[in-house]
Amino acid sequence: MSAEDQKRIAGEAAAALVENGMIVGLGTGSTAAWFVKAVAARGLDIQGVPTSEATAELARSLGIPLLTLDEARRIDLTVDGADEIGPGLSLIKGGGAALLREKLVWEASKRCVVIADAAKVVKTLGAFPLPIEVVAFGHAKTQARICDALAECDLGIAPRLRMKDGEPVRTDGGNLIYDAACGAIPEPSMLADALKAVTGVVDHGLFLDLADEAIIGTDAGAVTKAP
Ligand code: 5RP
């Protein structure tokens, strides 16, 4: 079975968690898109809170009414993809450059479910380069201080500015992304704290203690994992 089929299986299984009247956080990426499509197909009376402009466009095209994060009185359930799922449902996210809006929506949600294909489950986070969102002003100086923060965590690497078509990638909020190829992150919470302490860093793709549940698409169907 292809990874895309596993993503579809996970997205469809998560769509079964949605009930009439819910306000639902809508994640970003190819797996989350399967969820959004499967939810729309159920024709429920729900409202969505999108985590990116791309997801907002998809949800609108499928007729899902949308709220901004500030308009939502509550968020009952958020479903989103991930780049890596590690021990205790620690995550790396941000491969789609939406990590800031995703984290804001996740943190405002009563329940967060991460969905992914089986290859995303890892023993140790870090093979996927960690996305770090920074403000554009003075970003090269910020990059140097990120290197210091990484070195404090015994990660002697220099993060690379994410580029596309010869231009730096901009997030929906107009920020830049640096990707840190850590290899392995033995202490994710220490790294998370060190990165958050750098002026100019808006946020990073480590999602720790946020996921309540994972639904993994496997060749044998959808498998649920608790932290
Ligand atoms: C976007 C994300 C995505 O959820 C993550 O990159 C996974 O993407 P996909 O489902 O396409 O594999 O964090 O910022």
Present the secondary structure layout:
Layout: H1 3-15, E1 23-26, H2 30-42, E2 47-50, H3 53-61, E3 77-80, E4 84-85, E5 91-92, H4 99-107, E6 112-117, E7 130-134, H5 139-152, E8 160-161, E9 163-164, E10 167-168, E11 176-180, H6 188-196, E12 201-204, E13 206-207, E14 213-218, E15 221-225
Parallel strand pairs: 1-2, 1-3, 3-6, 6-14
Antiparallel strand pairs: 4-5, 5-13, 7-11, 7-12, 8-11, 9-10, 14-15
Helix pairs in contact: 1-2
The chain binds ribulose-5-phosphate.
3D structure, described in words:
- There is one protein chain.
- The strands form four sheets. The protein has a six-stranded mixed sheet, sandwiched between helices. A four-stranded antiparallel sheet has the order 8-11-7-12, with helices on one face.
- Strand 14 (213-218) and strand 15 (221-225) form a beta hairpin.
- The chain has six helices and 15 strands.
- The chain has helices at residues 3-15, 30-42, 53-61, 99-107, 139-152, 188-196, and strands at residues 23-26, 47-50, 77-80, 84-85, 91-92, 112-117, 130-134, 160-161, 163-164, 167-168, 176-180, 201-204, 206-207, 213-218, 221-225.
- The protein is an alpha/beta fold.
- Residues 27-32, 80-83, 93-99, 102 line the site of ribulose-5-phosphate.
